[in-house]
Amino acid sequence: MGKRDLDCLIIWGSFGFNRTLISNLRYLSNVSATEGYFVFPLEGEPTLITFFGRHDTTWVDDCRAGHPMHSKAIAQRISELHLEKGNLGIVGISGYFGEMGFSYATYTSLVNLLPEAHFADATNIIESARRIKSGAEIRCFELGCDAGVKAIEAGADRIRVGTKDRDVQATILDTLYRNGCEAGSMLLYCSRKVVSHAGQGQDLPLPGPRQLEEGDMILTEMDAKYQGYMAQFNQPYSVGEPDKEWKKKEAVALESFHTGLKVLRPGIMIGELDEAMLSIITKAGYTWRNPMFHGLGLSLEGPIGRFPVQKPFEPFLTIKTQPGQVIELEPHVVSPNGKTGLTIGCPVLVTETGCRPLSDTWKPGIKVIKI
């Protein structure tokens, strides 16, 4: 903030996108159960402005109610800090989630309430700080990974011919919750004989009535969210022995995943990692729809590889990796016609000399359910 000549940050957070849009707000305040704004001055005490005001779990003493006119409460605090003519940084109007971010109504009201203030985009200040994880943050990932592996195994125990999809989902989520993860942990789930990504299950009818059949492939992607940190796994299951084509996709995904582990180290261009993992897939005659990797923290974050489904997206290929980053390696192997595919992945920490998976017990690959 000092380098940018900013007197104060105004940070926004909400429960959108599986609660990950609260990440910048949570990072500074420790608030997890509400939405709102955070006034963070360069000098002086910060103020949390939310629906109710008081929150005992935060790191902030000054908590105020702001709904339904958060802008008035923000402007009042800015005036108390004597920053009506100051340089104010807005956090939540750019980056990967920028167009899902800071309320336009709040922003325009602030401009009117503080006509002599100077406003600037400061989103990258917080998001850059969040990208490098402390030892405590890494420990949260490790504990999330422990819970995630238990949930994967519990799901495998529940999967049988005739079991309902919803019962498998409930088992996975229940296991996460009982092992210390937050109730808002994401679970993408799709089961069919023709599937390409776990996320497509969200576009199908509710899975409750459907019963699993022999030959089904179940694709899952979960965030084992511990203290907000998303230990993400991409885990496929096969009801019965998978056929030769599924085994070939698995082999290609595993080769791409292990290639990523060999290449990922501090100081490389993200484009190098992207090309190394993707080339394995394309040389085998397959395609992809989702990126080979993305950053993880309190939200999905940069760096992100090439993302064909999101055509307007410009990947972070020129960013260099740094020790302390957590990156989800999740190669997506899809048939040329786009109908079948799978992902395999887990969180990986960039270390001083290379990288390491943050789970010591997870084994990449299809979990085969014997029938």
Helix percentage range: 25-40%
Shape: globular
CATH superfamily of the largest domain: Creatinase/methionine aminopeptidase superfamily
Number of helices: 8
* Secondary-structure content class: alpha+beta
The CATH topology of the largest domain corresponds to Creatine Amidinohydrolase
Radius of gyration: 22 Å
Strand order of the largest sheet: 4-3-2-1-5-6
The share of residues in extended strands comes to 15-25%
Number of strands: 17
Instruction: Describe the sheet with the most strands.
Output: 6 strands, mixed
Overall average residue pLDDT: 94
CATH class of the largest domain: Alpha Beta
Low-confidence stretches: none
Order of helices and strands: EHEEEHEHEHHHEEEHHEEEEEEEE
Instruction: Write down the domain tally.
Output: 2
CATH architectural designation of the largest domain? Alpha-Beta Complex
> End-to-end distance, in Å?
60 Å
